[in-house]
Structures are given as C-alpha cells and as structure tokens.
Amino acid sequence: MAQAPVVLENVLVGMADLFGVDGAALMLLDGQDRLRAVGASDDVGIALESAQESVGDGPAIASAVRGDLVAINDLHAAIPLGFPHVAAHAMPVRAVMSVPLVEGTELIGVLDFYARIGREWDPAAVETGSCLGELMVIVLRVLAESRTDSSPSGQV
Amino acid sequence: MAESPTLRDRAGAEVRFTRGYGMTHIDPEALVASLRRLQKNTTATGIVQHLERIVQVVDRIFGYSGAGLMFAEEDRTLRYLFATDERGRSLEHAQAMTGQGPCVAAYAGDTEVTTVDVRSDRRWPELPELLHPEVRAVAGVPIRLGGVPVGTLNVYQDAPHEWEDSDVQALHAYAHVIEQVLVASIEADEKAVLADQLQYALDYRVVIERAIGYLMGKHDLTATQAFTGLRKQARDSRRRVSDLAAELLGEQGPHDVANPDHAV
C-alpha cells in the first residue's frame, strides 16, 4: 500500500504530540527476527534507531531483550544508566523511553519516545507510553492487514 | 550530528544518520519486511474491532470516565458505534435519538465541542432525561477522512469538569491517529467496503443492545457485565459479537455467556 509510510509517520508524529515529547521512532523485527530501524517522526529519531541497529545496543535493544519497558533519563549517562556509545551518534537525544510492542504473546518491535532534555519518566508517563505501545500494535496490524501487495519487490 | 564518529553497518558501509526516505522518515523496505512478517503471524480481525480496541486505549491514556466513537451514515445522521461502558452508551444513544448533543454538534460544525456539565447545558435540553446520571462533562472532536468529518471521538467525565486546551489538543491528536487507521483500511478495502463494515456495526448495535438487555434481565447483571461477557465469549469462540447476540436472542446461545469471567 502506497500510503503506509505516510500513515506510519503521521501516527508517530501524532503519538509524540500526544505524549508531549520531542519525537517517536520505531524498530520492528523483520522476517529474520532482526530488529530493524523502520522510521521516526524526524531525523533525530532516525539517527537514534540507526545507531541502535548498527551498534547492536541501546534502550530499544535492551527493551526487546528484556521484553519490558526501558526508561532512560539521560542517554549520555555512563553505563548502566545510559548508553553513551549510542548517544554519540544521536547527540540531541537525552531522555528515551523504549516500549516493547507485543502482539498476543509475541514481540514484534520496540517503540521509542525521546526528548532533547533529560527527564525522569514518572509512573504516569510509563503508563501512557505503554498505552501508546498498544495503540502502535493496533496500527501495525491494520497496516499489515491492509497490505495488498504480495510480491517481494519491497514496494509498500 | 555532523560531528558524530563514523559508524559502519555489518557490510562495512557507512551508516548515514540523517537519511530520509522520499517524502517521509520511514524506510519502506524495512516496513514492508516487518508487515509481511506480522501478516503471516496474525489473523485479520477487521476495522471495527480495531476501532474498539483503539477507543479502549484512549480511555486508559486520558484517564477520563469513558470514551466512545460515533460515525455518520450516508444521510449524515450520527450513530453510535462503540462506547467503553454503559454510561458512555447512554450518551451516544441519547444523542442518536434526539439528534442533539456535544458530539452531534462537533460533527455538524466540524470542530471540537465541550461542555462542563451536559446535564445543565441549555444547548441540549432533551438530553438529560435520556442520559445516565453519571455522564456530566463531555468533549467531542471530529474524525475526518479527506478533510471531511465522518464521525466523532467522545470522552466524558462523571463529574462537572472544565476542559483545558491541552485536553482538547490531545483529543485532536488521538482523533488524528484514528483517521490514519481509517486511511490505512481504505487503502486495502476500498471505501465502500469500509463503509459496509461500519454500517454493519451500526446496524447490529441494535441486536447487541437487545441481547444485553436480555442478559441483564435473565441473570441480574449490569449492562457492563452483560456486554463484557458477550464480547468475551464472541472473542473466545472467534465470532462476531453481533452474530452471538443474534443467536442468543434466538435462544440458541450458550448459557455461560452471562458470566464474564468464564471462558467458554
């Protein structure tokens, strides 16, 4: 479906607005169970996801491994509080919340929210992030069900 | 970002950190790979059930007393599609019956409409006697397709409440997400099919409401308990709620439907 990327970007932008953060970004498992950077609401989000995919580490990776939400107050903080080796490639990003996306019982990806200023994620923010993760799963299911192409051409 | 160290992917190519993908920030090749995987592993459920889940999530995100969706028929009559509880259903029913109310006004005016206390709001004098007494503050925002309103997202509070601009902005943002879901559905199913699915849901609400009333009377349940039980059994038996409701009204339904906690 030609509009899937547009729909997904609009949803990411809308979720960031809803959450009151600077951006949202998405990593999804592909057919080989690899977590891949799929997109973001802006360039900073793409940098964050690309860095995690390439380094093989970061809050989204940790969230996928643990199957749990990971909240980082400052990505630039030393390990274990932060991921400075990831932060070096996504300089503007400070606070990150990584929400595992689970369909049924299966992990399908991770949704990241980020802010350019360090912040503590309080329980209310964690609850909102979890809800938005559920919403993203629904959106992805709609997009998956809406796919009319079955060719392996890579056209969405 | 220009000063960040060079990073290379597994193939040794330099990773670009400010890439774009045509008109969006989405990698279409990565997206299609993941959607293909998801498509293989899930069973299609249909747009109406997705919308129901979305409204349930909105209810939890905002922490209001309840939420609901109304959609317009071809004659622009707003009808109730889904509400998170019995009180919300009364709000949507009352508006559908009287043709007036905050959500009807939001749809007709294509703008947000709020009321601190719908029970004392003089704009809609016929509503209070049809409403559940715990429906007080109401906010409705339009849901648009192609820039044209097709329905409304509604939330309510069980006490008078002054809605702030941030409340309304958040509702608009959520309505926008719902619009994107509708756009995605239309892409695959064509508008007529989406309209058919919504129409089916609108039509069969009557059957579902009758089944809820039947269960309430027969098993001394609240409307919420009856609806929850009906929906759970439909889900467990992979049937539509409306089909199960119709079966129940024909006195062919399983007995355990009355117990929301009982998986059949």
From TrEMBL, chain A:
InterPro entries: GAF, GAF-like_dom_sf. It comes from the Bacteria. Residues 3-150 form the GAF domain. This is GAF domain-containing protein.
